[in-house]
Amino acid sequence: MPRVESPREANCNTTIKVLQNTGKTFGYMTPPLQPTAKDLPLRFLRASAFHFLASPDQLTLQVKDLLEARKEAGITTRPLIVWEPAPMYCRPNSLAAHVEASKLVDVFSPNHQELDALCGRLKQQGPLPPADVGREHVEGCAAAFMEEHFHIFGPHQLVIIRAAEHGSLVARRTTSGDQLQDTVDMTWVDPYYSVEDQNRIIDATGAGNAFLGAFAVEFQQNGGDAVEATAKASVAASFAVEQIGLPTKHHIGGRSSKSEWNGTTVAERMKEYERKTSKT
Question: Which residue intervals define the domain Carbohydrate kinase PfkB in the entry (predicted)?
Answer without folding.
Answer: 91-245
